[in-house]
Amino acid sequence: MSSKKITVAIAGNPNSGKTTIFNALTGARQHVGNYSGVTVERKEGTRVYKGYEINFVDLPGTYSLAANSVEEVVARDYLILEKPDVVVNVIDAGNFERNLYLSTQVVELNVPLVLALNMADLAEKQGLTFDKKKLGKFFNAEVVSTIGSKGFGLNDLLDAVIAKSEQHDNSSSEHLINYGEDIEKELEKLADIVDREHALAAKYGNRWLSLKMLEQDPDIMSKGHKQEVLDAVDSSIAKLDRIFGDHPEVVIAEKRYGFISGIFGQCVTLTAQKHHDISDTIDKVLLNRILGLPIFFALMYIVFSLVFLAGDPLMGHIESLFEWLSGTISSFWPADTDSQLKSLLVDGIIGGVGGVVIFLPNIVLLFLAISILEDSGYMARAAFIMDRVMKKIGLHGRSFIPMVIGFGCTVPAIMGTRILEDRKSRFTTILILPLMSCGARLPIYSLIIPAFFPKEWRSFTLWIMYIIGIVTAIIAATILRRTLFKGETGIFLMELPPYRTPTARGLMIHIWERSWLYLKKAGTTLLAISIVLWALSTYPKAPDDMLSGLSEEAAQQTSLQYSIAGRVGTFMEPALKPLGFDYRVGTALIGALAAKEVFVAQMGIVFSIGDADENLTADEDSSLENYTPLQKKLQASYTPLKAFCIMLFCLISAPCVATLAISKRETGSWKWATGQFLGLTLLAYLMTLTVYQVGSALNIGTGSYKTAAQVQTPTTTDSTTTATKPLPINNSSNY
Ligand code: GDP
Ligand code: MG
Question: Taking the chain, what is the end-to-end CA distance rounded to the nearest angstrom?
């Protein structure tokens, strides 16, 4: 008889019932030997079923595959090197969580898996019910219930084994466990280096090998590695050690437990009471059906209050530094010269780059807060809470993780969508991610909000900007999932890691990386763009006779409108007018396509060009508020409604070029990137149009936030910002 042969390994914890099941399946057809070189018993047996000759191997029982004992090494090597057709993982369902620790490691070996939830009788007594369909999806496995001692469910098990062996999809579940940004980054780095050890890498796979080396697996470490590999591993371990204040080994194990808790939370229903630890108790409150969401939004509110309250005084210091710098540079020239170099330095560079760097404290504080929430384990809970909301819109809670990363920068967030295996969910998430207000928009809010909103409303306004982004994203996702990306939501695993106190060093490293990126961008990209924008906003110069006889304010406006940027802005003005924007905002919006911060830089340039010398000196008026010169000029030119519309447009509209490039790369086509660009810009236009028109009609925020006496209309001379000296540009004696 030419039956098909299947080799099946039975793995599981000691006393999970492996041998009972093995005996029941194979009866007398067994033979016992030893694994080569060690005295561990190797039991094999055969069962003929439905035309298949199935050869079972009863592996030694282990709690883990960490190579702490001979049994673990034997079991692991068998699974990796002898490549059985199917692995049956026997699980003591009454000790589900503890048993899953082994399962998470078996899954990482990327073997065709059948989970046998054995001791189903004991589990039932404990009041545990399992969602086998969900479990199967998480583990990419067939799942059956068995009672080994009564021979119950064994035919189901055999059917599952055959089904799995016939299934040749290699949709791997090896990435089931994502170890978090920090560890994944090191794993990716190591995988490239480990790849050079061809023999080992080919045997074990790059990722798995790297993971074991991060864990300092004694068996893998003893295999003899090239020095460059060992060095790379050491430096990765040292780095992770600094971030977590703990060995990567410990953190990796914790992550596994996190996933197991997640699986338990999602796949197991408890009808009886179970034990609690501290994490469980805290989760009772934080994950509460009713309280969960309000707590999440309240925490976000606290974060934004912190950004403003603690950020303000720090900002003042950086501001004075730039004032001093621009004063010092200005003093190199006689007061009334019309030096282009001076204008470039003071208006272009300090006005542009300086205007952005001022907001560094806000960036630092925002990332401090986000890092604390992430490192403590709360963000994983947030994803869990959001799951209920996300499900309703056709996405999974796991999509929320890239969304949170999106608060920092959309580019890594889009890369983070790789954790979503289902293409439709992934594309939807990529398309809506730019709506999560990124760090580069924060300077725009930080400039505008304090200038136009009373102190007690500032945190709220900032919070509202983020909420508008989230809500718009949710609505957009719902629409996308019902139209372009129709289909069932894939099922994803979410983790519930134990809470841990964030380490100071870990926080420092995260903040440092963020701040350094921000400063580097300011010093390179923004510097270059500021110089270009300054030139575009300065040249060509309006001829003298056009300016002569005009008031200082009018002359400034005329010369700006005469420049290239001014002309482009003026050209756009008819389209922007219905949104409440003028040509100056238009020029800044174009600049913002390069990077969102440029909006602030360009407003700084536009409002300081042609201004008198002391343009960066904050005046010491009697008011308690300490506005920057730029903020005062904005107050003079726009109303709170217009200011809000500017922020709204910047939030929703076309993402920056870096985002478009990464969208193209991750979706594999310009089609989606272009669609994203056009779609979001159109959406921004419509939303801003509605808000501005409705706001104007209802007279909301159309008056000045400051009292009328302090601020006048932009066309007349503004008392709070006017310099006393004549504009150099207006001084024809210079030509
Ligand atoms: P192994 O260490 O994984 O090989 O576990 P064994 O097969 O030796 O089983 C350990 C104990 O669990 C034995 O006393 C079995 O009779 C018992 N056992 C196995 N399966 C079940 C089951 O489904 N329900 C119950 N109640 N007991 C079981
Ligand atoms: Mg046994």
Answer: 105
Alpha-carbon distance of 503 to 540, in angstroms, equals 55
Instruction: Tell whether the model's pLDDT for residue 96 goes beyond 60.
Output: yes
148 in ligand 1 pocket by Cβ < 6 Å? yes
- Residue 655: asked if its preceding bond is cis (omega within 30°), the reply is no
Which residue do the tokens 């289902």 mark? 422
Instruction: Give the distance (Å) from ligand 2 centre to CA of residue 39.
Output: 15
Q: How far is the CA of 12 from the centre of ligand 2 (A)?
A: 9
The rounded Å distance from CA 24 to ligand 2 centre is 12
Orientation angle between helical segments 598-608 and 583-592, nearest 10 degrees: 140
Q: Is the CB of residue 649 less than 8 Å from the CB of residue 579?
A: yes
- Is the distance from CB of 562 to CB of 540 less than 8 angstroms? yes
Give the CA-trace dihedral at 372, 377, 378, 379, to 10 degrees: 90
Helices and strands of the chain, counted as H and E runs: 34, 9
pLDDT at residue 432 is higher than 80: yes
* Most confident region among 196-205, 215-224, 300-309, 519-528 by mean pLDDT: 215-224
Q: What angle do CA 160, 90, 146 make, to 5 degrees?
A: 60
- Give the orientation angle of helix 527-538 with respect to helix 564-576, to 10 degrees: 90
638 phi/psi in degrees, rounded to 5: -130, 160
pTM score > 0.90 for this model?
A: no
Say which DSSP state 622 is in.
Answer: S
Ligand 1 mutation target, pool 18, 19, 20, 150, most atoms within 8 A of CB: 20
Q: Is there a contact between 710 and 548 (Cβ–Cβ < 8 Å)? A: no
Phi, psi of 360 (to 5 degrees): -55, -45
pLDDT digits (tens, 9 = 90+) for 27-52: 877 787 777 777 678 889 999 999 99
Ligand 1 nearest-atom number relative to CA 147: 23
Alpha carbons within 13 A on the beta-carbon side of 196: 11
> 20: Cβ below 6 Å to ligand 1?
yes
